[in-house]
Amino acid sequence: MEFRKLTSGLTVSPQIAPGDMKAIAAAGYRAIICNRPDGEGPDQPSFAEIEAAARKEGLEARYLPIETGKVTDTDTQEFDRALTELPGPVLAFCRTGTRSATLWSLSQADRLDVAEILATSKAAGYDMGGVVRRIANGGRTPTEQADATFEIVIVGGGAAGIAVAASLRKRLPRVEIAIIDPADTHYYQPGWTMVGGGIFDAAETARTMGSLIPKDVRWIKAAVAAFEPDADVIILDGCRVVRYDRLIVCPGLKLDWHAVDGLVETLGRNGVTSNYRYDLAPYTWELVQGLSKGRAVFTQPPMPIKCAGAPQKAIYLSADAWKRRGVLGDIDIHFANAGGVLFGVKDYVPALMEYIDLYGVALDFHHNLISVDGPAKIATFQVSHPDTRPERVEMPFDMLHVCPPQTAPDFIRVSPLADDAGWVTVDQATLRHTRWDNIWSLGDVMNAPNAKTAAAARMQAPVVAANITADIRGRAPVAQYNGYGSCPLTVERGKVVLAEFGYGGTLLPSFPKMLIDGTRPSRAAWLLKEKILPPFYWQGMLRGHEWLVRPETITTD
Protein backbone atom coordinates (compact mmCIF):
# COMPACT_ATOMS: atom_id res chain seq x y z
CA MET A 1 0.00 0.00 0.00
CA GLU A 2 1.07 3.56 -0.68
CA PHE A 3 -0.83 6.22 1.24
CA ARG A 4 -0.65 9.71 -0.31
CA LYS A 5 -2.35 12.19 1.98
CA LEU A 6 -4.10 15.18 0.41
CA THR A 7 -5.97 16.53 3.45
CA SER A 8 -6.72 15.45 6.98
CA GLY A 9 -9.93 13.92 5.65
CA LEU A 10 -8.72 12.33 2.40
CA THR A 11 -5.84 10.14 1.31
CA VAL A 12 -5.46 8.67 -2.18
CA SER A 13 -3.69 5.48 -3.15
CA PRO A 14 -2.85 3.20 -6.05
CA GLN A 15 -4.77 -0.08 -6.30
CA ILE A 16 -5.43 -1.81 -2.97
CA ALA A 17 -6.26 -5.46 -2.28
CA PRO A 18 -8.80 -7.12 0.05
CA GLY A 19 -5.93 -8.23 2.24
CA ASP A 20 -5.01 -4.57 2.89
CA MET A 21 -8.20 -3.77 4.80
CA LYS A 22 -6.90 -4.65 8.25
CA ALA A 23 -3.94 -2.27 7.83
CA ILE A 24 -6.20 0.44 6.36
CA ALA A 25 -8.54 0.24 9.34
CA ALA A 26 -5.60 0.20 11.75
CA ALA A 27 -4.31 3.41 10.12
CA GLY A 28 -7.53 5.12 11.18
CA TYR A 29 -9.50 5.20 7.93
CA ARG A 30 -13.25 4.72 8.18
CA ALA A 31 -14.33 4.59 4.53
CA ILE A 32 -13.08 3.68 1.06
CA ILE A 33 -13.95 5.06 -2.38
CA CYS A 34 -13.11 2.94 -5.40
CA ASN A 35 -12.55 5.05 -8.54
CA ARG A 36 -11.34 2.19 -10.74
CA PRO A 37 -13.85 0.37 -12.97
CA ASP A 38 -14.02 -3.40 -12.55
CA GLY A 39 -12.18 -5.38 -15.23
CA GLU A 40 -9.67 -2.67 -16.09
CA GLY A 41 -6.73 -5.00 -15.41
CA PRO A 42 -6.29 -8.78 -15.35
CA ASP A 43 -4.96 -8.88 -11.76
CA GLN A 44 -7.45 -6.38 -10.36
CA PRO A 45 -9.80 -7.45 -7.54
CA SER A 46 -13.45 -6.55 -8.10
CA PHE A 47 -15.23 -3.91 -6.08
CA ALA A 48 -17.43 -6.61 -4.56
CA GLU A 49 -14.33 -8.30 -3.13
CA ILE A 50 -13.00 -4.95 -1.84
CA GLU A 51 -16.35 -4.06 -0.29
CA ALA A 52 -16.77 -7.43 1.46
CA ALA A 53 -13.28 -7.23 2.98
CA ALA A 54 -13.87 -3.62 4.02
CA ARG A 55 -17.10 -4.43 5.83
CA LYS A 56 -15.37 -7.14 7.85
CA GLU A 57 -13.06 -4.44 9.22
CA GLY A 58 -15.90 -1.99 9.87
CA LEU A 59 -15.13 0.19 6.85
CA GLU A 60 -17.76 1.70 4.57
CA ALA A 61 -17.10 1.41 0.82
CA ARG A 62 -18.47 3.25 -2.20
CA TYR A 63 -18.07 2.51 -5.90
CA LEU A 64 -17.51 5.55 -8.16
CA PRO A 65 -15.78 4.14 -11.27
CA ILE A 66 -14.02 6.58 -13.63
CA GLU A 67 -12.63 5.69 -17.03
CA THR A 68 -9.07 6.86 -17.54
CA GLY A 69 -9.01 10.45 -18.81
CA LYS A 70 -12.80 10.84 -18.60
CA VAL A 71 -13.60 12.64 -15.35
CA THR A 72 -16.91 14.41 -15.98
CA ASP A 73 -18.40 17.32 -14.07
CA THR A 74 -21.02 14.90 -12.72
CA ASP A 75 -18.28 12.56 -11.48
CA THR A 76 -16.72 15.44 -9.58
CA GLN A 77 -20.03 16.31 -7.93
CA GLU A 78 -20.63 12.69 -6.92
CA PHE A 79 -17.13 12.41 -5.46
CA ASP A 80 -17.70 15.57 -3.44
CA ARG A 81 -21.04 14.19 -2.21
CA ALA A 82 -19.37 10.95 -1.17
CA LEU A 83 -16.76 12.81 0.86
CA THR A 84 -19.58 14.65 2.63
CA GLU A 85 -21.68 11.55 3.32
CA LEU A 86 -19.01 9.02 4.26
CA PRO A 87 -17.36 8.96 7.69
CA GLY A 88 -13.81 10.21 7.56
CA PRO A 89 -10.99 10.01 7.07
CA VAL A 90 -11.51 8.47 3.63
CA LEU A 91 -9.12 6.49 1.41
CA ALA A 92 -9.83 6.83 -2.33
CA PHE A 93 -8.02 4.68 -4.89
CA CYS A 94 -7.74 3.81 -8.57
CA ARG A 95 -4.92 2.18 -10.55
CA THR A 96 -2.32 4.83 -9.64
CA GLY A 97 -4.32 7.29 -7.54
CA THR A 98 -4.37 9.93 -10.29
CA ARG A 99 -8.10 9.75 -10.98
CA SER A 100 -8.85 10.04 -7.27
CA ALA A 101 -6.52 13.04 -6.96
CA THR A 102 -8.13 14.62 -10.02
CA LEU A 103 -11.60 14.20 -8.56
CA TRP A 104 -10.49 15.85 -5.33
CA SER A 105 -8.78 18.73 -7.20
CA LEU A 106 -11.87 19.48 -9.26
CA SER A 107 -14.21 19.11 -6.30
CA GLN A 108 -12.26 21.73 -4.34
CA ALA A 109 -12.00 24.26 -7.17
CA ASP A 110 -14.80 26.47 -5.86
CA ARG A 111 -13.27 26.56 -2.36
CA LEU A 112 -9.49 26.71 -2.74
CA ASP A 113 -7.35 28.76 -5.10
CA VAL A 114 -5.65 27.10 -8.03
CA ALA A 115 -2.13 27.35 -6.63
CA GLU A 116 -3.13 25.66 -3.37
CA ILE A 117 -4.82 22.78 -5.19
CA LEU A 118 -1.87 22.29 -7.54
CA ALA A 119 0.63 22.46 -4.67
CA THR A 120 -1.31 19.97 -2.54
CA SER A 121 -1.64 17.51 -5.42
CA LYS A 122 2.01 17.94 -6.37
CA ALA A 123 3.13 17.26 -2.79
CA ALA A 124 1.21 13.97 -2.96
CA GLY A 125 2.94 13.07 -6.22
CA TYR A 126 0.21 14.01 -8.71
CA ASP A 127 0.50 16.61 -11.51
CA MET A 128 -2.83 18.34 -12.16
CA GLY A 129 -1.53 20.43 -15.07
CA GLY A 130 -3.85 18.61 -17.46
CA VAL A 131 -6.98 19.87 -15.69
CA VAL A 132 -5.76 23.27 -14.56
CA ARG A 133 -8.20 25.09 -16.81
CA ARG A 134 -11.08 23.19 -15.25
CA ILE A 135 -9.77 23.91 -11.76
CA ALA A 136 -9.61 27.61 -12.62
CA ASN A 137 -13.19 27.35 -13.90
CA GLY A 138 -14.51 26.19 -10.55
CA GLY A 139 -14.09 22.51 -11.42
CA ARG A 140 -16.31 22.69 -14.49
CA THR A 141 -15.33 21.97 -18.08
CA PRO A 142 -14.62 25.35 -19.76
CA THR A 143 -14.67 26.41 -23.36
CA GLU A 144 -11.45 25.93 -25.29
CA GLN A 145 -11.80 29.29 -27.00
CA ALA A 146 -9.38 32.05 -25.99
CA ASP A 147 -10.85 35.28 -24.64
CA ALA A 148 -7.93 37.32 -26.01
CA THR A 149 -4.83 36.76 -28.14
CA PHE A 150 -1.63 38.83 -28.28
CA GLU A 151 1.71 38.50 -30.01
CA ILE A 152 3.55 39.19 -26.75
CA VAL A 153 2.13 38.76 -23.25
CA ILE A 154 4.00 39.99 -20.17
CA VAL A 155 3.04 38.58 -16.76
CA GLY A 156 3.89 41.19 -14.14
CA GLY A 157 3.76 44.99 -14.11
CA GLY A 158 6.63 45.67 -11.75
CA ALA A 159 10.00 47.15 -12.63
CA ALA A 160 10.93 44.27 -14.93
CA GLY A 161 7.55 44.03 -16.68
CA ILE A 162 7.07 47.69 -17.50
CA ALA A 163 10.74 48.15 -18.47
CA VAL A 164 10.71 45.24 -20.91
CA ALA A 165 7.36 46.40 -22.33
CA ALA A 166 8.80 49.85 -22.96
CA SER A 167 11.96 48.43 -24.56
CA LEU A 168 9.87 46.16 -26.79
CA ARG A 169 7.55 48.97 -27.83
CA LYS A 170 10.53 51.03 -29.02
CA ARG A 171 11.80 48.10 -31.11
CA LEU A 172 8.44 46.74 -32.27
CA PRO A 173 5.95 49.62 -32.57
CA ARG A 174 3.28 47.57 -34.36
CA VAL A 175 3.36 44.35 -32.32
CA GLU A 176 0.38 43.67 -30.03
CA ILE A 177 1.63 43.58 -26.42
CA ALA A 178 -0.30 43.00 -23.20
CA ILE A 179 0.75 43.28 -19.55
CA ILE A 180 -1.16 41.18 -17.00
CA ASP A 181 -1.12 42.52 -13.45
CA PRO A 182 -3.92 42.97 -10.87
CA ALA A 183 -2.28 45.82 -8.94
CA ASP A 184 -3.50 49.42 -9.04
CA THR A 185 -0.23 50.86 -7.74
CA HIS A 186 3.38 50.53 -8.85
CA TYR A 187 6.11 51.07 -6.25
CA TYR A 188 9.72 52.20 -6.45
CA GLN A 189 10.79 49.63 -3.88
CA PRO A 190 14.48 50.68 -3.67
CA GLY A 191 13.21 53.90 -2.10
CA TRP A 192 11.73 52.17 0.94
CA THR A 193 15.15 51.91 2.59
CA MET A 194 15.33 55.71 2.40
CA VAL A 195 11.79 56.02 3.79
CA GLY A 196 12.84 53.88 6.75
CA GLY A 197 15.86 56.16 7.20
CA GLY A 198 13.79 59.34 7.27
CA ILE A 199 15.09 60.61 3.92
CA PHE A 200 12.20 59.93 1.50
CA ASP A 201 8.49 60.29 2.03
CA ALA A 202 6.63 57.06 1.31
CA ALA A 203 4.28 58.78 -1.15
CA GLU A 204 7.26 59.60 -3.38
CA THR A 205 7.72 55.86 -4.07
CA ALA A 206 4.21 55.16 -5.41
CA ARG A 207 2.45 55.89 -8.71
CA THR A 208 -0.65 54.54 -10.38
CA MET A 209 -0.09 51.53 -12.63
CA GLY A 210 -2.13 53.09 -15.41
CA SER A 211 0.19 56.11 -15.61
CA LEU A 212 3.21 53.88 -16.25
CA ILE A 213 1.98 51.27 -18.75
CA PRO A 214 3.58 52.20 -22.10
CA LYS A 215 1.35 53.72 -24.76
CA ASP A 216 -0.46 51.17 -26.94
CA VAL A 217 0.32 48.32 -24.51
CA ARG A 218 -2.87 46.63 -23.30
CA TRP A 219 -3.21 46.34 -19.53
CA ILE A 220 -5.18 43.29 -18.36
CA LYS A 221 -5.99 44.00 -14.73
CA ALA A 222 -6.23 40.42 -13.48
CA ALA A 223 -4.33 37.76 -11.58
CA VAL A 224 -2.81 34.74 -13.31
CA ALA A 225 -4.11 31.40 -12.08
CA ALA A 226 -2.02 28.99 -14.16
CA PHE A 227 0.01 28.37 -17.30
CA GLU A 228 -0.48 25.91 -20.16
CA PRO A 229 2.79 26.40 -22.03
CA ASP A 230 2.22 23.50 -24.42
CA ALA A 231 -0.94 25.26 -25.63
CA ASP A 232 0.58 28.80 -25.50
CA VAL A 233 -2.12 29.78 -23.03
CA ILE A 234 -2.42 31.60 -19.70
CA ILE A 235 -5.40 31.01 -17.43
CA LEU A 236 -6.57 34.03 -15.46
CA ASP A 237 -8.66 33.99 -12.30
CA GLY A 238 -12.22 33.31 -13.36
CA CYS A 239 -10.93 31.00 -16.14
CA ARG A 240 -10.46 33.69 -18.75
CA VAL A 241 -8.01 32.40 -21.34
CA VAL A 242 -5.26 34.53 -22.88
CA ARG A 243 -3.32 33.11 -25.81
CA TYR A 244 0.15 34.31 -26.81
CA ASP A 245 2.80 33.86 -29.47
CA ARG A 246 5.57 34.79 -27.04
CA LEU A 247 5.45 35.05 -23.27
CA ILE A 248 7.54 37.03 -20.77
CA VAL A 249 7.26 36.01 -17.11
CA CYS A 250 8.28 38.60 -14.51
CA PRO A 251 5.82 38.79 -11.59
CA GLY A 252 8.52 39.32 -8.97
CA LEU A 253 8.67 37.23 -5.82
CA LYS A 254 6.53 36.56 -2.77
CA LEU A 255 7.32 37.98 0.66
CA ASP A 256 6.36 35.08 2.91
CA TRP A 257 5.42 36.89 6.12
CA HIS A 258 3.49 33.86 7.36
CA ALA A 259 6.68 31.74 7.37
CA VAL A 260 7.63 33.37 10.68
CA ASP A 261 5.23 32.35 13.42
CA GLY A 262 3.50 35.31 15.05
CA LEU A 263 5.01 37.90 12.69
CA VAL A 264 1.86 38.90 10.80
CA GLU A 265 -0.04 39.51 14.03
CA THR A 266 2.55 42.00 15.34
CA LEU A 267 3.80 43.82 12.23
CA GLY A 268 3.43 47.58 12.59
CA ARG A 269 3.20 47.51 16.37
CA ASN A 270 5.09 46.27 19.44
CA GLY A 271 8.27 47.67 17.91
CA VAL A 272 8.18 45.24 14.94
CA THR A 273 8.68 46.71 11.47
CA SER A 274 10.07 46.11 7.99
CA ASN A 275 11.30 48.29 5.14
CA TYR A 276 10.12 45.53 2.79
CA ARG A 277 6.55 46.87 2.96
CA TYR A 278 5.33 50.28 1.80
CA ASP A 279 3.08 50.89 4.80
CA LEU A 280 5.68 49.77 7.34
CA ALA A 281 8.77 51.70 6.19
CA PRO A 282 7.51 54.93 7.86
CA TYR A 283 7.07 52.95 11.10
CA THR A 284 10.76 52.02 10.91
CA TRP A 285 11.71 55.69 11.04
CA GLU A 286 9.19 56.29 13.83
CA LEU A 287 10.84 53.55 15.89
CA VAL A 288 14.34 54.86 15.18
CA GLN A 289 13.36 58.33 16.34
CA GLY A 290 11.68 56.98 19.46
CA LEU A 291 14.46 54.66 20.61
CA SER A 292 17.09 56.10 22.96
CA LYS A 293 18.21 52.96 24.72
CA GLY A 294 17.64 49.22 24.56
CA ARG A 295 18.16 46.51 21.94
CA ALA A 296 17.53 46.80 18.21
CA VAL A 297 17.54 43.55 16.22
CA PHE A 298 17.73 43.39 12.41
CA THR A 299 17.15 40.08 10.63
CA GLN A 300 18.03 38.50 7.30
CA PRO A 301 16.50 35.17 6.13
CA PRO A 302 18.13 32.50 3.96
CA MET A 303 18.84 33.43 0.35
CA PRO A 304 17.55 34.20 -2.17
CA ILE A 305 15.99 37.52 -1.21
CA LYS A 306 15.20 40.77 -2.96
CA CYS A 307 18.18 43.14 -2.62
CA ALA A 308 20.44 41.20 -0.30
CA GLY A 309 21.94 44.41 1.09
CA ALA A 310 18.62 45.91 2.21
CA PRO A 311 18.56 44.34 5.70
CA GLN A 312 21.89 45.88 6.59
CA LYS A 313 21.06 49.20 4.93
CA ALA A 314 18.38 49.52 7.61
CA ILE A 315 21.03 48.90 10.26
CA TYR A 316 23.41 51.55 8.97
CA LEU A 317 20.84 54.33 8.54
CA SER A 318 19.30 53.59 11.94
CA ALA A 319 22.68 53.49 13.69
CA ASP A 320 23.77 56.69 11.96
CA ALA A 321 20.63 58.43 13.20
CA TRP A 322 21.29 57.21 16.76
CA LYS A 323 24.91 58.33 16.47
CA ARG A 324 23.86 61.82 15.38
CA ARG A 325 21.50 62.03 18.37
CA GLY A 326 24.25 60.87 20.74
CA VAL A 327 22.42 57.73 21.94
CA LEU A 328 24.27 55.07 19.92
CA GLY A 329 26.24 53.92 22.96
CA ASP A 330 23.01 53.07 24.78
CA ILE A 331 21.63 50.87 22.02
CA ASP A 332 22.62 47.21 21.64
CA ILE A 333 22.44 46.48 17.88
CA HIS A 334 22.29 42.92 16.53
CA PHE A 335 22.32 41.70 12.96
CA ALA A 336 20.78 38.20 13.02
CA ASN A 337 21.70 36.77 9.63
CA ALA A 338 20.68 33.26 8.52
CA GLY A 339 23.79 33.20 6.32
CA GLY A 340 27.42 33.00 7.28
CA VAL A 341 28.85 36.17 5.69
CA LEU A 342 28.11 39.88 5.84
CA PHE A 343 27.92 40.32 2.05
CA GLY A 344 28.25 37.82 -0.76
CA VAL A 345 30.89 39.72 -2.76
CA LYS A 346 34.07 39.87 -0.68
CA ASP A 347 35.47 43.05 -2.24
CA TYR A 348 32.86 45.15 -0.42
CA VAL A 349 33.16 43.51 2.99
CA PRO A 350 36.13 45.53 4.36
CA ALA A 351 34.31 48.87 3.93
CA LEU A 352 31.14 47.45 5.45
CA MET A 353 33.04 45.99 8.41
CA GLU A 354 34.38 49.43 9.22
CA TYR A 355 30.80 50.57 9.76
CA ILE A 356 29.85 47.43 11.66
CA ASP A 357 32.70 48.23 14.05
CA LEU A 358 31.89 51.97 14.13
CA TYR A 359 28.27 51.30 15.12
CA GLY A 360 29.10 48.42 17.47
CA VAL A 361 26.88 45.94 15.66
CA ALA A 362 26.94 42.34 16.94
CA LEU A 363 27.02 39.93 13.99
CA ASP A 364 24.90 36.88 14.80
CA PHE A 365 25.51 34.62 11.81
CA HIS A 366 23.49 31.44 11.13
CA HIS A 367 20.53 32.92 13.05
CA ASN A 368 17.24 32.35 11.21
CA LEU A 369 14.13 34.05 12.62
CA ILE A 370 11.33 31.50 13.15
CA SER A 371 8.89 33.23 15.52
CA VAL A 372 8.05 36.56 17.11
CA ASP A 373 6.14 37.24 20.32
CA GLY A 374 5.26 40.89 19.80
CA PRO A 375 3.63 41.71 23.16
CA ALA A 376 6.49 40.03 25.05
CA LYS A 377 9.04 41.52 22.61
CA ILE A 378 10.94 38.27 22.12
CA ALA A 379 12.30 36.99 18.81
CA THR A 380 13.16 33.30 18.49
CA PHE A 381 15.87 32.09 16.12
CA GLN A 382 16.93 28.71 14.82
CA VAL A 383 20.71 28.80 15.17
CA SER A 384 22.53 26.38 12.87
CA HIS A 385 26.28 26.86 13.01
CA PRO A 386 28.24 24.47 10.74
CA ASP A 387 29.03 21.10 12.30
CA THR A 388 26.91 21.80 15.39
CA ARG A 389 23.46 20.68 16.42
CA PRO A 390 20.77 23.32 15.67
CA GLU A 391 19.34 25.08 18.69
CA ARG A 392 16.69 27.68 19.39
CA VAL A 393 17.71 30.99 20.90
CA GLU A 394 15.40 33.68 22.26
CA MET A 395 16.43 37.31 21.84
CA PRO A 396 14.55 40.14 23.61
CA PHE A 397 14.19 43.36 21.63
CA ASP A 398 12.91 46.91 21.86
CA MET A 399 12.94 47.32 18.07
CA LEU A 400 12.82 44.46 15.55
CA HIS A 401 13.36 45.08 11.83
CA VAL A 402 12.40 41.95 9.88
CA CYS A 403 13.41 40.94 6.39
CA PRO A 404 10.83 38.21 5.58
CA PRO A 405 11.60 34.86 3.93
CA GLN A 406 11.02 35.04 0.18
CA THR A 407 9.86 32.55 -2.43
CA ALA A 408 8.57 32.52 -5.97
CA PRO A 409 4.85 33.39 -6.20
CA ASP A 410 2.55 30.43 -5.59
CA PHE A 411 1.20 30.32 -9.15
CA ILE A 412 4.79 30.15 -10.44
CA ARG A 413 6.02 27.50 -7.99
CA VAL A 414 3.31 25.04 -9.00
CA SER A 415 3.61 25.74 -12.73
CA PRO A 416 5.52 23.69 -15.33
CA LEU A 417 7.74 26.73 -15.89
CA ALA A 418 9.48 26.33 -12.53
CA ASP A 419 12.56 24.42 -11.38
CA ASP A 420 12.57 22.27 -8.24
CA ALA A 421 13.02 25.34 -6.05
CA GLY A 422 10.04 27.09 -7.65
CA TRP A 423 11.84 29.69 -9.82
CA VAL A 424 11.36 30.05 -13.58
CA THR A 425 14.04 28.09 -15.43
CA VAL A 426 16.06 30.16 -17.91
CA ASP A 427 19.31 30.14 -19.81
CA GLN A 428 21.32 32.59 -17.70
CA ALA A 429 22.75 34.38 -20.73
CA THR A 430 19.76 34.76 -23.07
CA LEU A 431 17.06 34.59 -20.33
CA ARG A 432 15.06 32.26 -22.55
CA HIS A 433 13.25 29.35 -20.94
CA THR A 434 15.22 26.13 -21.20
CA ARG A 435 12.19 24.05 -22.28
CA TRP A 436 9.84 26.39 -24.17
CA ASP A 437 11.63 28.58 -26.70
CA ASN A 438 8.80 31.13 -26.94
CA ILE A 439 9.02 31.97 -23.22
CA TRP A 440 11.45 34.36 -21.51
CA SER A 441 11.78 35.50 -17.91
CA LEU A 442 13.50 38.31 -16.05
CA GLY A 443 13.48 40.05 -12.70
CA ASP A 444 13.24 38.41 -9.30
CA VAL A 445 11.27 35.34 -10.40
CA MET A 446 13.81 33.62 -12.64
CA ASN A 447 16.55 31.26 -11.53
CA ALA A 448 19.72 32.79 -12.96
CA PRO A 449 22.34 33.13 -10.18
CA ASN A 450 22.31 36.92 -10.02
CA ALA A 451 21.34 39.39 -7.31
CA LYS A 452 17.61 40.13 -7.27
CA THR A 453 17.65 43.92 -7.60
CA ALA A 454 15.93 46.61 -9.66
CA ALA A 455 19.30 47.35 -11.26
CA ALA A 456 19.47 43.74 -12.45
CA ALA A 457 16.01 44.07 -14.05
CA ARG A 458 17.14 47.30 -15.70
CA MET A 459 19.98 45.40 -17.38
CA GLN A 460 17.86 42.35 -18.21
CA ALA A 461 15.00 44.21 -19.92
CA PRO A 462 16.89 45.22 -23.07
CA VAL A 463 18.44 41.74 -23.29
CA VAL A 464 15.00 40.13 -23.39
CA ALA A 465 13.64 42.82 -25.73
CA ALA A 466 16.54 42.40 -28.15
CA ASN A 467 16.28 38.61 -28.16
CA ILE A 468 12.52 38.57 -28.69
CA THR A 469 12.89 41.07 -31.51
CA ALA A 470 15.49 38.82 -33.10
CA ASP A 471 13.23 35.79 -32.63
CA ILE A 472 10.30 37.51 -34.34
CA ARG A 473 12.61 38.28 -37.26
CA GLY A 474 13.70 34.66 -37.48
CA ARG A 475 17.15 35.16 -35.98
CA ALA A 476 19.02 33.49 -33.13
CA PRO A 477 19.49 35.35 -29.80
CA VAL A 478 21.66 38.44 -30.21
CA ALA A 479 22.09 39.69 -26.62
CA GLN A 480 23.35 38.17 -23.39
CA TYR A 481 23.02 39.09 -19.72
CA ASN A 482 26.23 39.17 -17.70
CA GLY A 483 24.60 38.83 -14.28
CA TYR A 484 24.86 42.54 -13.48
CA GLY A 485 23.28 43.73 -10.27
CA SER A 486 23.78 46.77 -8.11
CA CYS A 487 23.29 47.37 -4.40
CA PRO A 488 23.88 50.93 -3.13
CA LEU A 489 24.66 50.22 0.52
CA THR A 490 23.66 53.31 2.51
CA VAL A 491 26.30 53.08 5.23
CA GLU A 492 25.50 56.52 6.66
CA ARG A 493 23.40 59.53 5.74
CA GLY A 494 25.46 61.07 2.96
CA LYS A 495 27.64 58.07 1.99
CA VAL A 496 27.07 54.90 0.00
CA VAL A 497 29.17 51.84 -0.82
CA LEU A 498 28.10 51.26 -4.41
CA ALA A 499 28.31 47.51 -4.95
CA GLU A 500 28.11 46.55 -8.65
CA PHE A 501 28.84 43.00 -9.70
CA GLY A 502 27.92 40.20 -12.08
CA TYR A 503 27.96 36.43 -12.22
CA GLY A 504 30.49 34.86 -9.88
CA GLY A 505 31.00 38.11 -7.97
CA THR A 506 32.87 39.78 -10.84
CA LEU A 507 33.04 43.55 -10.24
CA LEU A 508 31.18 45.49 -12.95
CA PRO A 509 31.52 49.20 -12.06
CA SER A 510 29.53 51.69 -14.13
CA PHE A 511 31.80 54.63 -13.38
CA PRO A 512 35.56 55.30 -13.46
CA LYS A 513 37.21 54.59 -10.12
CA MET A 514 38.33 58.21 -9.86
CA LEU A 515 34.65 59.24 -9.87
CA ILE A 516 33.17 56.47 -7.72
CA ASP A 517 35.24 53.75 -6.09
CA GLY A 518 32.51 51.24 -5.32
CA THR A 519 34.56 49.46 -2.69
CA ARG A 520 34.74 52.59 -0.53
CA PRO A 521 32.00 54.82 0.97
CA SER A 522 31.32 57.74 -1.35
CA ARG A 523 29.33 60.98 -1.30
CA ALA A 524 29.03 60.81 -5.07
CA ALA A 525 27.36 57.41 -4.76
CA TRP A 526 24.96 58.87 -2.16
CA LEU A 527 24.04 61.63 -4.60
CA LEU A 528 23.38 58.92 -7.18
CA LYS A 529 21.14 57.00 -4.76
CA GLU A 530 19.23 60.00 -3.41
CA LYS A 531 18.91 62.36 -6.38
CA ILE A 532 19.64 60.56 -9.64
CA LEU A 533 18.31 57.00 -9.44
CA PRO A 534 14.65 57.82 -8.64
CA PRO A 535 14.07 59.99 -11.75
CA PHE A 536 16.33 57.60 -13.68
CA TYR A 537 13.85 54.87 -12.74
CA TRP A 538 10.61 56.73 -13.45
CA GLN A 539 11.64 58.66 -16.56
CA GLY A 540 14.35 56.37 -17.88
CA MET A 541 14.01 52.66 -17.16
CA LEU A 542 10.19 52.57 -17.26
CA ARG A 543 10.11 54.62 -20.48
CA GLY A 544 12.42 52.31 -22.39
CA HIS A 545 15.50 54.52 -22.21
CA GLU A 546 18.40 52.09 -22.00
CA TRP A 547 21.01 54.39 -20.51
CA LEU A 548 24.15 52.54 -19.37
CA VAL A 549 22.52 49.15 -20.07
CA ARG A 550 23.30 48.44 -23.70
CA PRO A 551 23.09 44.63 -24.01
CA GLU A 552 26.25 42.64 -24.57
CA THR A 553 26.25 41.12 -28.04
CA ILE A 554 26.49 37.36 -28.40
CA THR A 555 29.61 36.57 -30.37
CA THR A 556 30.05 33.46 -32.47
CA ASP A 557 33.30 31.87 -33.56
Give an overview in words.
- With 557 residues, this protein is an alpha/beta fold.
- It has three domains: 4-136, Protein tyrosine phosphatase superfamily (Protein-Tyrosine Phosphatase, Chain A, Alpha-Beta Complex); 149-253 and 408-553, FAD/NAD(P)-binding domain (3-Layer(bba) Sandwich), CATH 3.50.50.60; 257-406, FAD/NAD(P)-binding domain, CATH 3.50.50.60.
- 28% of the residues lie in helices and 23% in strands.
- The chain has 15 helices and 28 strands.
- The strands form eight sheets. Strands 6, 7, 10, 11, 12, 13 and 24 form a seven-stranded mixed beta sheet that branches. It has a five-stranded mixed beta sheet with strand order 1-2-5-3-4, with helices on both faces.
- Helix 3 packs across helix 4 (98-107).
- It is globular and about 85 Å long.
- Residues 151-263 form the FAD/NAD(P)-binding domain.
- It comes from Jannaschia faecimaris.
- This is Sulfide:quinone oxidoreductase.
Shape: globular
Named CATH topology of the largest domain: FAD/NAD(P)-binding domain
Number of strands: 28
Strand content: 15-25%
CATH superfamily of the largest domain: FAD/NAD(P)-binding domain
Q: Pairing-aware structural class of the strands and helices?
A: alpha/beta
Distance between the termini: 57 Å
CATH architecture assignment of the largest domain: 3-Layer(bba) Sandwich
Largest sheet: 7 strands, mixed
Poorly predicted ranges: none
Integer-rounded radius of gyration: 27 Å
Count of helices?
Answer: 15
The level 1 CATH classification of the largest domain is Alpha Beta
Give the number of domains. 3
Residue-averaged pLDDT: 94
Fraction of residues in H or I helices? 25-40%
Cofactor: FAD
Organism: Jannaschia faecimaris
Keywords: FAD, Flavoprotein, Oxidoreductase, Quinone, Transit peptide
Domain Beta-lactamase hydrolase-like protein phosphatase-like: 2-109
